[in-house]
Structures
1.
Amino acid sequence: MSNAIAGFSKLNKEEKINWIANEYFTHPKEAILTIKQYWNNDAKLQQLHDEFIENTISNFYLPLGIAPNFLINGKYFSVPMAIEESSVVAAAAKSAKYWSTRGGFKATVLNTEKIGQVHFMFTGDTLKLEHFFNTIKSNLIASTESITANMQKRGGGITSLELRNKTTELENYFQLHATFETKDSMGANFINSCLEQLAKTFKEEASNYSDFNEVEKDLTIVMSILSNYVPNCVVRAEVSCPIAELAENLPAGRQGKIENPEEFAEKFLQAVRIAEIEPFRAVTHNKGIMNGVDAVVLATGNDFRAVEAGVHAYASRNGTYSSLSHAKIENGIFTFWMEIPLALGTVGGLTSLHPLVKIALGILGKPSAQELMQVVAVTGLAQNFAALRSLTTTGIQEGHMKMHINNILNQYQTTAEERKLIKNHFENNAISHATVVTFIENLRK
């Protein structure tokens, strides 16, 4: 059982590592070696990584892969993806190539509005509060001008501010509900700074408002914080083609080949409809979408946790958790689409600090925030198409296990000769963890 430690954050990096190794490992020298082997040899680069967060001891690597051949609005993209899950990058690339010969992906940013709120408690006359707000609204916005000046030069800033009465849900609870345009930045720090200034000015104005009694003047600011739910910062991605064009000119017996496009389209629609009405399926369905979304969001230095939270809230906006993607057949045309909220940035934060994030954005042609929204949404849709295609044809495991086999081979530290024999054997045999392990054990007998 480990012991508590006081002042861990005040230890230097070596001291932190030594304490961790000696406290948690039977062989501390081996643990220290493992931790240090992921340090970067460039001291300045390592220091940069160390200062991203607190109490750093090492770097945690994820593979950075590329899914090429994404044709989006008539322009080709190679999409960087940071993810550890087998077959995700391959699936995205396969979908990208498939749709590149069928008109490609269409993507449209529907809106870019972001939201922040000042949450406060007020005991008193609601009509007086509303009159007070309307009286000082211009002063509230003016008080943020030193913060918003640079953003306004780029066409952004506070776009609206309103008072919301939430007392039917929580006694004495009100909000200042603000909307923002942050252009190419994600804008979290900007929004939170504006909100804190709004709260400060609001409190000061209330304490001096002559129509308030002493209780009303003493309103309580609970917190000031942006919302990661951005239902009006939405991008639409879609693909479509005549049903007949869903067929593929591939060798007979090729895994997942679409030989009967009418049957495939109908089965695909049913799979999407199931995810629309069945939450147990919808969660896994949407997780597949987020395999693509998160991988690009992470590679480009954006906050994938914020994106995840906002997207899943959006999937529940009608009262039941449902599919993010939809499909239809009309007049012989198959259409598959998705609308998702994405608050992303291409300037500020990690985008200007992390060297590989700069590379990822460079690969994408240094996109604007709206262009990145389109790429991310398209990658999510492509991932979803690949998953549904596999599920409704050969099943998900065949392709996944062919990619996952490398993890098993690494786990058992197979030699180059063993790998060759194993991969040859499983070209025409069913793959599972158990069958691969059994084959390795038999090879070694």
2.
Amino acid sequence: MKNITIAIDGFSSTGKSTLAKQLAKHLGYVYVDTGAMYRAITYFAMQIGYIDENFFDSTSLISSLKNITLHFEFNKELGFAEMYLNNTNVEVEIRSLKVSNFVSQVAEISEVRAKLVEQQKEMGANKGIVMDGRDIGTVVFPDAELKIFMTASPETRANRRYQELIQKGDVVSLEEVLQNVQKRDYIDTHRSDSPLKMATDAIEIDNSYLSKEDQFKLVLELVQEHLN
């Protein structure tokens, strides 16, 4: 059976990563969470002091990109690959709301995008990959055999994210999470370099009222059509 490239794009908190992990595991494909890569660079910028609520030294971050190494390591117990920043596991740290508040700003930087897109293209050179993000079907793999664009209402996405954060023990309010979702939507769709948009040949899925199981079945049918 031939291998294909599956590109999953969409707004924040639409469950892109969950779907991508399900597909990769079912198909025996490589899964790459590009959002984790941008989050890792954001976390690096926060740790160094390049970005906070009132300040963003993008020039220094760009100069430091040569000192940043990123890689994924598969965790058998979890069943997916975790993000490593300069050989340190940062999978937990990069999922915080603090990182979420700054990641879209960091992802706007053309030099950051160029560095990561180059790595992402290399990861998918041999196909057999499921990659999710914001510009996978438009920039990273414009020739992907299957492109999915996921969306849901901001309120639905904020509630999902809020529940995830609460379960992890984070102290946040639903209103705070909703504001973060709306802010990220605006930045992601209005940046000059590779803005979030649906590829012309992508299939849009609004999962506001879909269960994870129904969504997986729906997309798996689309995958099988391309494989056959």
